[in-house]
Amino acid sequence: MSRKQKRVFWPGLALIFLAIAALALVSVRANNSGIVSRPQVISATDISARAVSASLQGSSPSSRIEAELITATPHGFEPKQITRPPGRFLLMIDNRSGLALVSARLNLGAGIGLQEIALPREEPNWSDIINPQPGVYLLTEASHPGWACRIVIAPH
Amino acid sequence: MVDNLTFLRSALKKITLYYVPILIFILFAFHIVAAQTTSATDGSTPLGLSPGAPSGSYSLSGSGNVNLYNGNLNFHLPLRGIDGRGGAQMASVLAIDAKSWRVMHRPVADGESLDWPTPNSWSPKPGYGPGILAGRLSGFGTQDCGFNGKRYIQTLARLTFTTADGTEYEFRDQLTGGQPATLSSPCTDPAPSRGTVFITADGTAATFISDTTIYDTTRILNARSNLIYPSGYLMLRDGSRFRIDGGNVTWMRDRNGNRLTFTYDTNSRVTTITDSLNRQVTFSYADFVSTFSDQITFKGFSGLTRSISINYSSLSNALRTTNPRNEPAARYQIQTYKGLFPELNNASTSTNYNPQVVSSVTLANGRQYQFFYNCYAELGRVNLPTGGAIEYDYTAGSGASSDEIYRRVIERRVYRDGGNMEGYTTFSDVISGVATVDTARLVLCSRRCLISARPHQ
């Protein structure tokens, strides 16, 4: 490596590490403040785009974040529908179906993939804080077309 | 200039190949650490929350026990006895256990945490089968391992066999006696081994020998406690032996070689039980679309097919309608999770707790047990086929704190004809290590009078 190259390489490397550290910090803070952490799978429609943008703007304290539990039972999701006002909430999905794997999909009404959530029998719980915009979202299961839970976010 | 461009291109390639994956890994690791959910049943079940009817429980009748220490009502109705030759016997039971509510925690900023209730117990239930074996892998304390994310400093693995009535028997590894393993170098140490032999420490003298070595986990996952479903042999002190495959009992054998065999569906629910005389009991399950009942089918007298139905309905259709102690009316109405547990800040104010519950059992002769519940889906009343009834009342409040939900059964009443009370039993809280049971028997004389009151400690 020439002296000139060294002059470019080491500052570049330092910058990359700084970026890594900054992004890691942002990631931790995002998780700590309970913001949706996997918005990248939301795509394609205006509603989903709004869901992503809104996720970074929540300002209510953690005490106001409510939890919604959806249980995968041998006969499908319980409850069949959740209706909520707009705002952040914690969604927890619990695999109690006895199946070796529940592959949950949180979809928009049109069937556009939002999140793929693998719930093996050994790690039955999944939870995350999400902030979807008003609309109707559908939680389904890959191997059981009849399983569905509607998540209705009422308008303001 | 060209030299510089080539260098930059190779640097970019390096970044794409090495640094970006590292960056993604770091972000993923941080995400998991921050999002980990915890509950009081991580690692093992505290005695205050243990379900079922462990040794020392107060027996109420053939189908009920109260754990005086933690206040749990364990109602188990034997549905069908499977009794071939010798000691290879069991009964398929309907178990309704009050201890299932837990508080889930998830840390957020500034040391705060989200606390919400869940009605799901930590492990799957064995249903109509003889039991289920599950292991909990958990850990405590974390160490940052840089690019390798975070690892536990102490790890623990315990196995639990849950019997048909919900009672849990904990197995500890023989190597360490179930001690947590402390890692001297959490970032580089391999997951500690627990060996293959696990034993109970409660005097039941049961032993489980795993087919493979069981290891702790050092990885930090979504929840602090994760499950395993081991395979191996479970042996009891009376010489009987259970074969466990993936947590399910596939056969049990007494010391004389008499055997019961079990098959399961993909949901790990028992579908057939065959006894040592080759008699078979089959189980089919409600799909909640066209059928709302489980069926137990077997051959009765002179080979006739008989069946028992376990019927379900939503909790809103199975709430108790009687309220002799004038509890708040809301106790027998559907409520939101926040309504049930106002102490838990993050319980839902939008969603009602209205699960499917067992509303009745229709016996082979057409007679029925009927079940009614309170708003927590705890058993509130059983109408017996004979016309009598039993009622249960629970803790006045929610029993919740930010750490745990601690609810107790406080009174049991017996009605000889469904309406006239024959007697009642009250169960006190544990005060200075003593729980008091007061039983009163009422008889009808010219006016209702108390003829006996028997304290039991």
Would you mind describing this structure in some detail?
The complex is a heterodimer of chains A (156) and B (457). In chain A, a hairpin with a 2-residue loop joins strand 8 and strand 9 (144-153). Helices cover 26% and strands 39% of the residues of chain A. Chain A has two domains: 1-32; 36-153, Immunoglobulin-like (Sandwich), CATH 2.60.40. Chain A starts with a helix and ends with a strand. Chain A is elongated. Mean pLDDT of chain A is 71; it is low at 24-60. With 156 residues, chain A is α+β, with helices and mostly antiparallel strands. Chain A has helices spanning 3-32, 46-55; strands at 66-73, 76-78, 81-84, 89-95, 101-108, 113-120, 125-130, 135-141, 144-153. Chain B is mainly beta and 457 residues long. Chain B has one domain (36-456). Chain B has helices spanning 2-35, 337-340; strands spanning 58-61, 64-67, 72-83, 89-97, 102-107, 113-118, 131-144, 150-163, 168-173, 181-182, 197-200, 207-210, 225-228, 232-235, 241-245, 248-253, 259-264, 270-274, 280-284, 293-299, 305-314, 356-362, 368-373, 379-383, 389-394, 409-415, 421-427, 437-443, 449-456. Chain B has a 23-stranded antiparallel β-sheet that branches. In chain B, strands 1-2-3-4 form a four-stranded antiparallel β-sheet, with no helix packed on it. In chain B, strands 5-6 form a two-stranded antiparallel ribbon. The longest helix of chain B has 34 residues, at 2-35. Mean pLDDT of chain B is 85; it is low at 23-34 and 444-457.
Detail the topology: elements first, then pairings.
The complex is a heterodimer of chains A (156) and B (457).
Chain A: H1 3-32, H2 46-55, E1 66-73, E2 76-78, E3 81-84, E4 89-95, E5 101-108, E6 113-120, E7 125-130, E8 135-141, E9 144-153
Parallel strand pairs in A: 1-4, 3-9
Antiparallel strand pairs in A: 1-2, 4-7, 5-6, 5-8, 8-9
Chain B: H1 2-35, E1 58-61, E2 64-67, E3 72-83, E4 89-97, E5 102-107, E6 113-118, E7 131-144, E8 150-163, E9 168-173, E10 181-182, E11 197-200, E12 207-210, E13 225-228, E14 232-235, E15 241-245, E16 248-253, E17 259-264, E18 270-274, E19 280-284, E20 293-299, E21 305-314, H2 337-340, E22 356-362, E23 368-373, E24 379-383, E25 389-394, E26 409-415, E27 421-427, E28 437-443, E29 449-456
Antiparallel strand pairs in B: 1-2, 2-3, 3-4, 5-6, 7-8, 7-13, 8-9, 8-10, 9-11, 11-12, 12-14, 14-15, 15-16, 16-17, 17-18, 18-19, 19-20, 20-21, 21-22, 22-23, 23-24, 24-25, 25-26, 26-27, 27-28, 28-29
